[in-house]
C-alpha cells in the first residue's frame, strides 16, 4: 500500500485543457474521492495516475517513486472501470485470475488466491459461470475481485457504482467501504455524486473545469467551502448566497444587509465591492425578533425536516427547519443566521474570504 | 398479459413462404443447372429442349482431369481392351487417355493464391484497423478515405500499369505476384470492415489488460483478437470470395505456372464443345468456398449485423 502524491499535473487534449494544474496528496490507506461535475477533469486525473493517459506536464509519485511517464503495466495498481470491463470471452474464475498468470504465479497459489478473494466477496458459487449472464452487482464483485486478487499498491475506481440500479448502489457503497476498511488499501474513487463522496470518503478533492477547487475532509469541505462552486456543488439543497455590495474590513465581526447587522466569524482579510454571504440551509432560523424579513414561498415536507423557501431582499434562500415548525405560505417571517457558520465570498472570483473560522481549512487546502 | 408483437396470420405465412421459396429457386437454379450438366453426356448437354431426366455419366469429370488422343482402329486393337472404368468411357469415342490435364495444378494455384491473399489481407487489415481505431494517427480521416478510394474505380482500370510493373519486377505469372495483387485489392475492404468491428470493442478491455500487467501487444492478441473473431471471419469470407473468383487480372497476368482456375476453365471447351467438362470443373471449383463459408457461417451471420449497427 502506498502514498500517492500529485504535483502540478496538467493534461492537454489538443487545444483543450482537461486538467490545468492539480496538486494533492493521498495518504497511505486513505479512501480518497475525486469529486466534480462531468467534464471537470476528475477521470482524466485518475487515468493519468493509473497510466492510461500520460500527463502533458507535472509529476505523479507512488511511494516517492516518480511514475508519471511509466506505462500502466509497471505501476502495480488496480483499476475498476465504470462498465466493469470484464473480459467477455472468459468465465469468472479466469477473469479474476488473469492478472496473476501474467506474474507467473504457480497454479496452486493462484487457486488459493481465488478461493480467498471469492470468499471475501461471497462469489464462490458463480466462479465457473460466464460473465455474460451475471447481474450488475455480481459483475461489480468480479471486477473488484480482479482488482484485489493482486494486492496492488492502490485501487483506482472510476464511478464503479454508476452502472448499478439506484437501490443497489447504497448497498454496494457500504460493501465497498467495508472492503476498504478490511484491506486498508489506498483507494482513489471518482464520482460526480456528492452524497456518495461525503458518505464514503476519508478525504475529498473537488474539481471543476480542470482545477482543484478544494481538498480536505468531508466535514471541512461541507462547513467551510473554499469557493462558491464547492458551496453550491456540495449539499442538498446547496448553500444559500445572499449577494450584497459593501465592505468587510479586516477584523470585522459583522456585515450589514438591508440595515440589519449579522454577526460573522472574525474576518482576517478585508474587501470592498460585490460580496456574497454564504449560509447552509440548516443554519437559517426563523425568529420573530429579527428585523430581517422574508416571505415564505413554499415548504417541502421531508419527514423529520422541511425545506422552506423564502424570498428576501437579497434573493431566494432555502432553510432546513424542523417539521414541527409551523410556517404558512405567504406569511412574512423574521430571518436569523447562525453567526458561527457563515462564510463571506468574493462574488467576483468566487473565493471565500479568510476568517478565524475557515483559516485552517483554507490554508490546508 | 398483453403482447405488442403481432403474430402473422396463416395467409401472411403462406405468402412469405412462397416468396422465400421462389427467391431460393431463382438463385439456386443456375447452380443446379451447372451441377447437372457436369453429369450429362456431351449430346445431352446441348440437347434442345433441355433434358431434365438423363443418364448420369462421369464423362465430364474424366474429360476434365485427362487429355485424350484419337486413335485409328488398328492402334486401338493393339492397345488391348480398356483396363479401367475411365478407359472404357473414352474408348466410346475411339480415344485413349494420354495423360492428366492441367486442371489439378490450376485448382491448386487457386487454393494457394486465394487463401494466401485472404490470410495476408486479413492479417494486415487487422493490424491497420487496430491502429486506425485505437491510436492517434495523423491525417487519419484522409488516410481512411485514401484507402477506400482505391475501390472507387474497377481494379481492372489499372491493369496496364500493373502489367508493366509486374513485368519489370519479375512478378508476372508468379504465385507471389498474384497474392500481392489480390491482397492490395482486398486490403481496403478488410481495413474498413475490421475498423468497424474493432471500434465496437470497448477500449476498457485493453485498458484492463494493461492495468493487469500485460503489454499493449499482449492486450491486443489476448483480449482484442478473441472478440474480433467474428469480424475477422466475415472479412475473410469476403476476401476469399473475391480472390477465388477473380478473372480479369488472372487472364492478363498469368498463363503458365501461376494460372488460377477461373481463366483455365473456359479453355477446357477446346474444339469439342465439351460443356460437361466445363460444368464439372466449375462444380468442383465451388466446393472450397462453400466449405469455407459453411465453416464460418455462424460468425458470418452475426458478423453482418454486428458491425453494421452504430450504438
Automatic annotation (TrEMBL), chain A:
Residue span, ABC transporter domain: 4-234
SUPFAM superfamilies to which the protein is assigned, alphabetical: MOP-like, P-loop containing nucleoside triphosphate hydrolases
Domain of life: Bacteria
GO molecular function: ABC-type transporter activity; ATP binding; ATP hydrolysis activity
Matches recorded under Pfam families: ABC_tran, TOBE_2
Keywords: ATP-binding, Cell membrane, Membrane, Nucleotide-binding, Translocase, Transport
Keyword Membrane (UniProt): yes
Keyword Cell membrane: yes
Gene Ontology, cellular component aspect: ATP-binding cassette (ABC) transporter complex, substrate-binding subunit-containing
Principal subcellular localisation of the protein: membrane
Membrane topology: Peripheral membrane protein
Cell compartments where the protein resides: Cell inner membrane
PANTHER family: MALTODEXTRIN IMPORT ATP-BINDING PROTEIN MSMX (PTHR43875), TREHALOSE IMPORT ATP-BINDING PROTEIN SUGC (PTHR43875:SF15)
Membership in a protein family: Belongs to the ABC transporter superfamily.
Protein name per the record: ABC transporter ATP-binding protein
Lineage, opening ranks: Bacteria, Pseudomonadati, Pseudomonadota, Alphaproteobacteria, Hyphomicrobiales
Automatic annotation (TrEMBL), chain B:
Protein family according to the UniProt entry: Belongs to the binding-protein-dependent transport system permease family.
Designated name of the protein: Carbohydrate ABC transporter permease
Transmembrane domains' residue ranges: 14-36, 107-131, 143-166, 178-198, 218-242, 249-269, 275-296
Lineage, highest ranks first: Bacteria, Pseudomonadati, Pseudomonadota, Alphaproteobacteria, Hyphomicrobiales
PANTHER family according to UniProt: ABC TRANSPORTER PERMEASE PROTEIN, MALTOSE TRANSPORT SYSTEM PERMEASE-RELATED
Gene Ontology biological-process entries: transmembrane transport
PROSITE patterns linked to this entry: ABC_TM1
Ranges for domain ABC transmembrane type-1: 107-296
CDD domains: TM_PBP2
Entry's Gene Ontology cellular component terms: plasma membrane
Membrane topology designation: Multi-pass membrane protein
Gene3D superfamilies: MetI-like
Keyword Thylakoid (UniProt): no
Location(s), subcellular: Cell membrane
UniProt keyword Transmembrane helix, yes or no: yes
Keywords: Cell membrane, Membrane, Transmembrane, Transmembrane helix, Transport
Amino acid at each position: 500500500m502506498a502514498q500517492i502524491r500529485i504535483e502540478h499535473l496538467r493534461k492537454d487534449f489538443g487545444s483543450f485543457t482537461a486538467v490545468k494544474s492539480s496538486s494533492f496528496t493521498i495518504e497511505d490507506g486513505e479512501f480518497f474521492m475525486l469529486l466534480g461535475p462531468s467534464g471537470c477533469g476528475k477521470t482524466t486525473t485518475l487515468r493519468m495516475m493509473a497510466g492510461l493517459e500520460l500527463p502533458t506536464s507535472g509529476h505523479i509519485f507512488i511511494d516517492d517513486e516518480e511514475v508519471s511517464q511509466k506505462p500502466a503495466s509497471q505501476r502495480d495498481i488496480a483499476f475498476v472501470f465504470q462498465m466493469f470491463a470484464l473480459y467477455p470471452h472468459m468465465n469468472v474464475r479466469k477473469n479474476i485470475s488473469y492478472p496473476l498468470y501474467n506474474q507467473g504465479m504457480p497454479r496452486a497459489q493462484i487457486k488459493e488466491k481465488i478461493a480467498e478473494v471469492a470468499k471475501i466477496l461471497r462469489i464462490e458459487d458463480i466462479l465457473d459461470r460466464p460473465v455474460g449472464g451475471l447481474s450488475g452487482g455480481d459483475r461489480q464483485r468480479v471486477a473488484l475481485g480482479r482488482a484485489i486478487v493482486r494486492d496492488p499498491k492502490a485501487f483506482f475506481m472510476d464511478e464503479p457504482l454508476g452502472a448499478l440500479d439506484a437501490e443497489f448502489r447504497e448497498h454496494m457503497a457500504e460493501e465497498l467501504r467495508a472492503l476498504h476498511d478490511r484491506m486498508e488499501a489506498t483507494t482513489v474513487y471518482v464520482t460526480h455524486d456528492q452524497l456518495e463522496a461525503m458518505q464514503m470518503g476519508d478525504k475529498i478533492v473537488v474539481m471543476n473545469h480542470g482545477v482543484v477547487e478544494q481538498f480536505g475532509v468531508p466535514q471541512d469541505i461541507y462547513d467551510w467551502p473554499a469557493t462558491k462552486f464547492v458551496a453550491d456543488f456540495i449539499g442538498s439543497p446547496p448553500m444559500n448566497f445572499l449577494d450584497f455590495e459593501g465592505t468587510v474590513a479586516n477584523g470585522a465581526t459583522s456585515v450589514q444587509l438591508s440595515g440589519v447587522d449579522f454577526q460573522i466569524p472574525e474576518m482576517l482579510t478585508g474587501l470592498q465591492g460585490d460580496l456574497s454571504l454564504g449560509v447552509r440551509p440548516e443554519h437559517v432560523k426563523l425568529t420573530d425578533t429579527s428585523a430581517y424579513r422574508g416571505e415564505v414561498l413554499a415548504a417541502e415536507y421531508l419527514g423529520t425536516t422541511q425545506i422552506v423557501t423564502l424570498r428576501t431582499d437579497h434573493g431566494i434562500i432555502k432553510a432546513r427547519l424542523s417539521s414541527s415548525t409551523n410556517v404558512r405560505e405567504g406569511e412574512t417571517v423574521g430571518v436569523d443566521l447562525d453567526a458561527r457558520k457563515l462564510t463571506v465570498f468574493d462574488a467576483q472570483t468566487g473565493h471565500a474570504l479568510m476568517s478565524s473560522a475557515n483559516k485552517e481549512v483554507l490554508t490546508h487546502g | 398479459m398483453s403482447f405488442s408483437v403481432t403474430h402473422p396470420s396463416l395467409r401472411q405465412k403462406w405468402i412469405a413462404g412462397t416468396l422465400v421459396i421462389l427467391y431460393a429457386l431463382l438463385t439456386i437454379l443456375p447452380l443446379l443447372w451447372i451441377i447437372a450438366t457436369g453429369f450429362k453426356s456431351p449430346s445431352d448437354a446441348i440437347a434442345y429442349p433441355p433434358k431434365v431426366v438423363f443418364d448420369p455419366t462421369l464423362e465430364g469429370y474424366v474429360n476434365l482431369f485427362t487429355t485424350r488422343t484419337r486413335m485409328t482402329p488398328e492402334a486401338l486393337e493393339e492397345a488391348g481392351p480398356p483396363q479401367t472404368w475411365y478407359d472404357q468411357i473414352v474408348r466410346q469415342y475411339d480415344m485413349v487417355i494420354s495423360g492428366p490435364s492441367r486442371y489439378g495444378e490450376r485448382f491448386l494455384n487457386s487454393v494457394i493464391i486465394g487463401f494466401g491473399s485472404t490470410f495476408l489481407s486479413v492479417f494486415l487489415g487487422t493490424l491497420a484497423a487496430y491502429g486506425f481505431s485505437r491510436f492517434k494517427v495523423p491525417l487519419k480521416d484522409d488516410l481512411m478515405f485514401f484507402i477506400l478510394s482505391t475501390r472507387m474505380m474497377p481494379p481492372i482500370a489499372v491493369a496496364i500499369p500493373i502489367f508493366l510493373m509486374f513485368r519489370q519486377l519479375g512478378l508476372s505469372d508468379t504465385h507471389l505476384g498474384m497474392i500481392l495483387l489480390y491482397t492490395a485489392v482486398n486490403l481496403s475492404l478488410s481495413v474498413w470492415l475490421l475498423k468497424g468491428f474493432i471500434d465496437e470493442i470497448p477500449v476498457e478491455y485493453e485498458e484492463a489488460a494493461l492495468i493487469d500487467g500485460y503489454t499493449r501487444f499482449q492486450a491486443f492478441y489476448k483480449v482484442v483478437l478473441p472478440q474480433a473473431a467474428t469480424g475477422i471471419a466475415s472479412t475473410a469470407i469476403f476476401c476469399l470470395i473475391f480472390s477465388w473468383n477473380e478473372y480479369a487480372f488472372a487472364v492478363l497476368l498469368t498463363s503458365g505456372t501461376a494460372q488460377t482456375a477461373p481463366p483455365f476453365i473456359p479453355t477446357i471447351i477446346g474444339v469439342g464443345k465439351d460443356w460437361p467438362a466445363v460444368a464439372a470443373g466449375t462444380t468442383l471449383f465451388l466446393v472450397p468456398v462453400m466449405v469455407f463459408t459453411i465453416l464460418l457461417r455462424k460468425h458470418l451471420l452475426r458478423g453482418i449485423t454486428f458491425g453494421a449497427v452504430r450504438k
